[in-house]
Amino acid sequence: MDASSLLATSTNKLNKPPYNNQIRAAEVRLIDEQGQQIGILPLEQALQMAKEKNFDLIQVTEKVSPPICRIGDYGKYLYQLQKKERKSLVGSKKSEVKIIKLSFNISDNDIETRVLAAEKHLNKGDKIRLELPLRGREKQLSEVGVQKINKFMESLQSKVEVKTEKELKKEPKGLSMIILKK
Predict the structure, then answer these.
(1) What pLDDT shows up at residue 131?
(2) pTM here?
(3) Three-state helix/strand/coil letters over the chain
């Protein structure tokens, strides 16, 4: 394996497009540095044109036959690709699941505090996992826990419109549900 093919395989692993001697097609569809389409040319002729203009021949896509290549500065082209990728990542915030725990003997004032925290997280776009752990004797009195959660939900719905993603469910460790903003 010679140095140029080794370089070609290492740059492709980094999702960098091949350029100049790394291009492995006999013919290419050429676009000049101004964005004008020149046409289908043999690879050697396209490389010569790029060299005459002191630029690189960059393979833009290989999904078509012949592959599309453009004349331009390779470093600048990579920078534009990175810039585009960063821009696409900016708007894609994943919603997180925030856990809010209520206790069996929670007071009304503490419920209001938890409602304010839930409202803040819901307005950010996060989901809320509402948990009420039950221990010992509390497991037989799960209706009281359901009442506490219903009180929390009534108070929250007076401030924010919510919908349930996962209904209130009795689990081995207690009660839980997942809610999100409409």
Answers:
(1) 92
(2) 0.51
(3) CCHHHHHHHHHHHCCCCCEHHHCCCCEEEEECCCCCEEEEEEHHHHHHHHHHCCCEEEEEECCCCCCEEEEECHHHHHHHHHHHHHHHHHCCCCCCEEEEECCCCCCHHHHHHHHHHHHHHHHHCCEEEEEEECCHHHHCCHHHHHHHHHHHHHHHHCCCCEEEEEEEEEECCEEEEEEEEC
